[in-house]
Each structure stands twice: as structure tokens, then as C-alpha cells.
Specification:
Strand content: 35-45%
Largest sheet: 9 strands, mixed
Number of strands: 18
Distance between the termini: 20 Å
Helix content: 10-25%
Order of helices and strands: EHEEEEEHEEEHEEHEEHEHEEEE
Oligomer: single chain
Structural class: alpha+beta
Length: 294
Amino acid sequence: MLSQGFLNLNKPFDWTSHDCVARVRKLLRLKRVGHAGTLDPAATGVLPIAFGKATRLLQYLPGNKAYKATIRLGVRTTTDDLQGEIINSQACGELNLAQVKTALLKFQGKIEQIPPSYSAIQVDGKRLYDLARQGKTVEVPVRTVEIFHIEILDWRQGDFPELDVAIACGSGTYIRAIARDLGEILETGGTLAALTRSESSGFYLTDSLTFTDLETQLQTGTFQPIYPDAPLQHLPSVTLPLTSARKWCQGQRISLTFDVSGIVRVYDEDTRFIGIGELQNQALIPQMVFEPIS
């Protein structure tokens, strides 16, 4: 049971996502460990970790995410968060919450966003943060992202006011870019002061484990991985009789009449999760066989 599954990790501050994978690899004594949805070192919160054969399922996780963020206005930085060098700083104590609420309306629904220069996005095969550290200026491609909801949690007036917000969004959204762009709209500058991810790919902060929690559970023998198919409940499921399940696991298409098309979870008649398939033209096509049937 410890050789495959998922872990809902609460990433600590100042750790990279790669650091977290390396630590989990060491604690579980496994080589095959991966993560979904990179978090910046300064961010904390949910980092889904897969290990064993479950690493092959990362691509099928849902993309929706949710964050709690603190945005500081009146400040611009090179990285769009407080970890970067300050480009400009101007007091804006006259700014009020009503102006901020109006500006936030521009961040609802599908919006165009330019990712931060310091990000993991690749341009011509090179990471943007590597190019930025080399002092190279490149044109960062605009991407379309979706913001489902933004809620103001708190507002602290001052020369450099701070805004706490809860944001629910689709995959690929940069909260640092929202902080930067909000500052541009308000003509004050803005940067991200703090970030916690409260939800990612079907995992929630309330159910997450810290490294201390994980180490304790491993020492006491109480650690239970999240079942490989548990985060995939957003996908429809198909159950196959034993003969068809065996053929499907061998790479054969199975004729099947179903009222949906697309990616599905596949189970055998004993409700065992055996993999991921695609329903297409009245046939179930293997995409990833997770648990072969002999």
C-alpha cells in the first residue's frame, strides 16, 4: 500500500516543489515520485504528490485551484512578489476599498494574462526564470486563464495598503500576475505579499499533511496513501466484465455503447481500478493501464 498512491502535502515556506518531491522520495524510500501544480518557494499550501504507478495519473487530475493571497499595493518588484527586487515604491494611502472592488471586476471570468518573467514557463526551450536571471529580456507569451471567483477577505488601509483575497481559478493562473496587474489598473503598482493554496486538483488544505505529520505517521505505521483513483472522481467511470477487462488491459479496443465520450476511469467487475481509457466511436480505447489483469 505504501508503494503507490497520492499524498496531500502542505508545502512549507521557502521550499521548492522539487525539494518537496526529493524529501518525500527519501521518506517513502521510493524513486518514482512526482507532483502536480508547481508552487513558488514563498507559497505554502496544497501540493499534490504522486508516487509509484500513480505518477502516471498526474496528467488526468482536475485543474481547478483555489488560493488565499495578500496583495500589497504601492510596490512593484522584479518577480511580482516580495522575494524580488523593488522596482518602484510609492505611497498610496489615498486609495480606498471601493476603487479596489471596481478594479477587481476586471479579473472575473476568462482573462488574458502575461505570466511573470520569473516563472517556469518555457520560451524556445528555456525557462523564463533562467533567462531573467541571465538578464535576458524575452517576450512572454500571453495566455488565457479563467478566474471563477474572487472574494475580498480583508483590507488594511495605510501608505502601502494590503488586500486579502480568496481566488478560485483554472490551471495555469498566476496569482502574482493578478497582484501586478491589479496594481497597474489602480496606477499604484502591486505585488504579491503572501500566498497559500487552499485547493489543488481535488485536494484540500484542511486534509493536508505537513512533513512533521507525514514523518510521525510513517514512524507509527499509520500513514495511509490516498487511493490512486480517488482524485479522479471528476471523470466518468466504466465497468467491464472480466473477459473484456482482460482484453482491454492487453491493449485491445472494446466495443461499448455509452452516453458520453472522452476520458474515463475503467474498473473490472470486482470494482478494481484498472486504468484510464477514452470512449471514442462506440469503443473504449486504452490510454493507460494501471493494474493489468493476468
